Amino acid sequence: MSKAVLLSAALALMSSAAAAQVPCGERAKIVGWLAVNYKEAPVATGLSNKGALVEVLTSVDGDTWTILITKPDGISCIVDTGQAWQPRPHEVEVAEPQA
Fold it and tell me: At 79, phi and psi to the nearest 5?
């Protein structure tokens, strides 16, 4: 059974029926569930232009990852999940001006 299916089922028990379509709920419950079931923890965060907190959570080995958005009203939703997360160094490529 896939991670998304398991997560949807677990969150459906914690939240409203709408959680079965888009897994949403209390941030602490979602992050706790991901920690227990997938050993995932936040590795990157940012604030969107709409005021939402965007987080990337990964397992230590990068085998699984989750992108979580917490809206200003405090509700967190899983945007996507996947496998084989690869951190990259921050490198800015600047093109040379053409003559």
Answer: -85, -45
99 found inside a domain:
no
In this structure, the strands spanning 53-59 and 64-70 are antiparallel
Note whether 64 and 83 are within 8 A (CB). yes
Decide if 93 is inside a domain: no
Write the CB contacts of 82 (distance below 8 Å, at least 6 apart in sequence). 64, 65
96 belongs to a structural domain? no
Q: At what angle do helices 27-38 and 3-14 cross, to 10 degrees?
A: 140
Q: Is residue 29 one of the residues assigned to a domain? A: yes
Instruction: Report the predicted TM-score, pTM, of the whole model to 2 decimal places.
Output: 0.71
58-76 pLDDT, tens digit each: 999 989 999 999 999 999 9
| Residue 57 · residue 34 · CB < 8 Å | yes
